[in-house]
Every structure is written in structure tokens, then in C-alpha cells.
Amino acid sequence: MKEKQRVEAILDGEVTIIDMSPKTNIFLIKCNWEECNSSSIQNQQPTSSTDNNNRDAHEIEISHESTHSTPQESSSSKYSHIKINKKAKYILIDTGTNGQEEKLIKVLDKELGITPNDLSLIVITHAHMDHAGTCWYLKKHFPHVPIAVPDLEYEMLRRGEPAPSTPTNLVAKILYIRGSRKKILPFEPDLRFKGGEHLEEFGVKASIVHMKGHTEGNIAVMLDNKKAAIMNDVMKGGFFSYGKPGYHLFYDDKMQILKNIKWAFDEGFQTFLVTHGYAFTREPLITWLEKELKQNKLM
Ligand SMILES: [Zn+2]
User: Fold this and answer.
1) 276 CA from centroid of ligand 1 (Å)
2) Ranges for the Metallo-beta-lactamase domain (predicted)?
3) Rounded distance, CA 94 to CA 107, Å?
């Protein structure tokens, strides 16, 4: 079986990958309200940005439980200030670039037959224009669909400022110069996620993990059943074929990125979904990861 088929077979329609422009993906996770309603509510207070325990632990250690925040039990009242659409069909992860507003509406209709009103939640992984670029439009025209953003980048998104991230080669420097002129249009997010939140209340069995390295506040979405680690710009995939994991062109902390990837691999996630390039499974990832861990003296 080829890598593309392997990815599709594992995801089995649970996660839909939509390419917004050449190899720039957004992701939709299918809601399963029946499954979510039958299990206990697990959530964590999403509004505080002062508790850095998870982040600190995450920075120091390579392996898990302690390094990545896990959902904790608490009441469902923390989302009482927003109205959750309990009939929604999907959660959307990232929204594409400024100017892709109409394209987003069209692809949602074409690929899944939905409008943004069929979303219970939009999660923005970090404050970059190709991820949060259409949020202003969604907020304006679909105000009842809540948008969750990384706690550490909440103020940047409100001001329309991109999160700092360093270009690592010449191509990235050129992209940076061109891209820096394109600011994110400001919008008012509804929720601040710092890692540890569970999405069960939004109809999806997945949790949020803080994964700094590309940007300081970057978050990722991990399915409970381990079928997918939706890691967006934590790394990238091959632009011409499946199964080619690599570093993103922009990052601030390579060691932290490697630790994040190792954590996700050790946790047993079966596919790794990235914004730029194709997705990949464990097989190509372990080959790449072992080499990088050795080169960077992390094993
Ligand atoms: Zn980015």
C-alpha cells in the first residue's frame, strides 16, 4: 500500500484534509456527538494564561505524560459564555490565508456540503496569516461559530500581528520579506487555549497540546484514538510526494520541535498532518526522526 492510501485508510473520513492552495492544508475533524455525550466531560479552564507549569515541564523533558498537558476533569460551565452548536458536523483547524475567504466557503461546500454554520469550533494553531487569515471574515459573517486561539498569541491576533518565527534558509527569507507585508486582519477570538483542553464539548474526542518551537504559543490537536496528530507548522511534509517529513522553513527552537515530534511519535499517533506538504505515517517519520535525534544529540 502506498503512503497516501495508508494515510487515508487510517483517517477513514474522520479527518478531512483540504488543500487551500498548493500544499497549504486546513483540516476538519468530524463531530461524533453520540460518542462524546456518552463519556464523561473532560475539560480544563481555557482562559488562564498564568499557569506555565505544563509549558515548563514540556521544555525540559523529551518524554511524555509530564511534558504534555493532559485533559483534567472539571465542569462544563467554563464554556457557558459561548453557545455551542450541538448539531454541528465538524471542527475546523486553521482557516487559510487572507483573501481566501470565498474560497474557504466554496471548498467547505464542495468537499463536505457544509457552511461555517455547521462548525462547532474553529481552532487556530498559531498567529500566522496563512492559518488565521480568514478569521476576520468568519467572525463577521458567522459570529456564532466560536474561534479558539493559542493563549500566548491571543493579543497578537486581536491586534492583527503575526507571531515571531525565524526564517531558516534563503527561500524562507524571501518568503518572509514578501509575507511580512501581509498582516493578519484583526478579529476577536472567543476562547484562549493553552494546552490541556479537551474538545469533547464541541463534539470531538481530541485534546489540545501546546507545542512551541515554530512560534511560542503554537498549539496542536491530537485525536484521542491516536489516528491523527494535527501538527500544522510544527513540521512540514514533502511538497511533491507523501511520506517526506521535514522541518518547517520557519522556526525559533529546533530542539523543542524535535522533542514535540518525538513525544507525538512515542504517544503512538498513526498519522501526522501538517499544513504545508503532504501528511505522513509513522514509518517515514521514525527514519527521519532517529537521524535528527542523533544529529542533535537527543539520543
Ligand atoms: Zn506558521
Assistant:
1) 9
2) 77-276
3) 14
Domain range for 178 is 3-295
C-alpha dihedral sign at 195, 198, 202, 206: positive
Output the CA 233–ligand 1 centroid distance in Å: 5
Strands 24-30 and 90-93: antiparallel
* H or E element in which residue 10 lies: helix 3-11
C-alpha cell at 155: 493579543
DSSP state of 193: E
Q: Please give the Cα distance from 274 to 30 (Å, whole number).
A: 18
Which residue ranges of the chain lie beneath pLDDT 50?
A: 41-67, 69-75
Strand segments (E) across the chain? 15-21, 24-30, 90-93, 119-123, 147-150, 191-193, 206-210, 219-223, 229-232, 271-274, 280-281
Quote the ligand 1 centre to 24 CA distance (angstroms).
Answer: 11
Q: What is the CATH number of the domain that holds 257?
A: 3.60.15.10
What pTM was estimated for this model as a whole? Answer: 0.87
Find the helix or strand (DSSP H, E) in which 135 lies: helix 135-141
Neighbours of ion ligand 1 (CB under 5 A): 128, 233
The three cell numbers of residue 269 are 499517533
Nearest in space to 190 (alpha carbons), one of 147, 142, 252, 159: 147
Asked whether 88 and 203 are in contact (CB, 8 A), the reply is yes
Coil, helix or strand at residue 45 = coil
Query: For residue range 74-124, what is the model confidence (pLDDT) as tens digits?
Result: 445 688 889 999 999 999 999 999 999 999 999 999 999 999 999 999 999
Report phi then psi at 106, rounded to 5. -65, -45
**How far, in Å, is the centroid of ligand 1 from the Cα of 36?**
31
User: Considering its fold, how many domains does the chain have in total?
Assistant: 1
Q: How far is the CA of 210 from the centre of ligand 1 (A)?
A: 14
